[in-house]
Amino acid sequence: MPQADNTLKVIKPGRLIDGVHDSAMEGTAVAIQGKSIKWVGPVSQAEGLDSGGAARETLEFPGATLLAGLFDIHTHTNMPGDGRTGEEVNEGENDQQRLLRSAVNATAAVASGVTTMCDCGSWNRNGFALKEGLAMGVVEGPRVLVSGPPLTVTGGHLYYMGGEADGIDAVRSMTRSLIKQGADFIKIAASGGSTSTSDPYRASYSVPELTAIVEEAHNRGRSVLAHCRCTDAINSALDAGVDAILHCSFYDNDGTYRWDQKTADRLAESGTWLNPTMGLGRANRERLERLKSERGLTPDEEERLERSTASGARSLDQFSTLVKAGVRLVGGSDCGWSYYPFGDFQGEVLSLHEAGLSPIEAIRAGTLSPATALGIQDSIGTVEPGKEADLLVVNGDPSQDLAQLRDVAAVFKGGARVATNKERAALG
Ligand SMILES: [Zn+2]
Fold first, then answer.
1. Which residues surround ligand 1, an ion (CB under 5 A)?
2. Residue % of the chain over a pLDDT of 70
3. Structural domain boundaries in the chain
4. pLDDT tens for residues 181-207?
5. CA of 2 to the centre of ligand 1 (A)
6. 187 CA distance to ligand 1 middle (Å)
7. Angle between helices 207-219 and 168-181 (to 10 degrees)
8. Residue 74 C-alpha to ligand 1 middle, in angstroms?
9. How far apart are CA 218 and CA 245, in angstroms?
10. How far is the CA of 171 from the centre of ligand 1 (A)?
11. CA distance linking residue 156 with residue 255, whole number of Å
12. For the chain, N or C: smaller number of CB within 10 Å?
């Protein structure tokens, strides 16, 4: 497991996207020492930096861009991303097997440039155990913030993860228990979802229940992320004052998609973070298109591709309009779920760009914004002195061509260099 040493490392990239300024800057260098960013300034002054007696090293990336490490606000490390449903993983595997997968997924994430991620729902103690493994140094991965099992009503979405609680007293008690076990934030299934005993088009919790959860979480400095797949649930979550709404799709109780201007206005006014999870559908479609050209699709796959294409277009339309209305988007892949394996959070960042964010804004939605939503923007999310040295170097210029985010040249977490996927592949 690589550890940060005290060497002063001067990184000279072709350009820097620091997350503070609105454009990429040339002629800027970044110095890191120990676990943090020590200095950001003109390349010409870099040689004069005092290493405090420690060794120094210069790292040149002339054609590349340096930016803050990516932050994926929405992942499920227990899940395989191979199309199996949560229920299948619940029945077919045990916690030990799922925890091993979390370790593998965490490594895939950091090797792809994600230096922080939220696990938005894993079974029982698995999320907490993953964090313990990372802290012990037996697992290589990003910084991981965990919710533990999502709070859900009896039979609600993800109930099998272990977070069922009904009624104000029970949800308060469950929230306190999760915080006691080590939850960094609280995840609520505020509507149903793919879980067969739940209904994605119905709000699950009452507003007083949601409010009790938010009160308990905020009282302990934890943010609340709410899964909402229908308009009713979005409005309940807004009433309760959650910090981020995941999915945030405008469906009526009968499953009909309907743009809702009143809800859109509320979302924009509230400043609540919205995570569209458009990258998930995109990953599904890319996979089916690939299969189509390789071997042709079965009728069932053909139908799924059609459905996904239609819902993807609706989603893109909804979020493009919301962006114009002034909502705040935050990047979260939902990877592990469906056919979205770990290692391409960039797909979600690209979909935010499609919805109308400029490349620099989309990068911010995948770095600083998640950090702000989780209340840790003072330590990560931008390239500024004093922050953790969580850095990503990509070839080319993502401020011109955002897809360059996928061409990873180097990753640093807490000042230590992490092997990229390319470097791992070269080792065999
Ligand atoms: Zn999710």
1. 120, 334
2. 99
3. 8-69+377-427, 70-344
4. 999 999 999 999 999 999 999 999 999
5. 30
6. 9
7. 30
8. 6
9. 16
10. 20
11. 17
12. C
User: How many angstroms does the Cα of residue 254 sit away from the middle of ligand 1?
Assistant: 22
- Please state, in angstroms and rounded to a whole number, the distance separating the CA atoms of residues 267 and 374: 18
8-69+377-427 architecture in CATH? Roll (2.30)
What residues have CB less than 8 Å from 79, skipping those under 6 apart? 86, 89, 101, 336, 337
Q: Which two structure tokens, joined as six digits, stand for 59? A: 């790292």
Distance from the CA of 408 to the center of ligand 1, in angstroms? 25
**Among candidate residues 187, 185, 141, the one with its CA nearest the CA of residue 343:** 141
Question: Residue 177 and residue 387: Cα distance in Å, rounded?
Answer: 31
pLDDT at 428: 67
Average pLDDT, integer, range 282-289: 93
Q: How far, in Å, from the CA of 189 to the mean position of ligand 1?
A: 9
Name the CATH superfamily for 70-344: Metal-dependent hydrolases (3.20.20.140)
* Residue 193 CA to ligand 1 centre (angstroms): 9
d(C-alpha 99, C-alpha 347), whole Å:
25
Query: What is the Å distance from ligand 1's center to 75 Cα?
Result: 6
Determine the distance separating the centroid of ligand 1 and the alpha carbon of 60, expressed in angstroms: 38
163-169 mean pLDDT: 98
Strand partners, 394: 65, 408
Ligand 1 centroid – CA 373 distance (Å)? 16
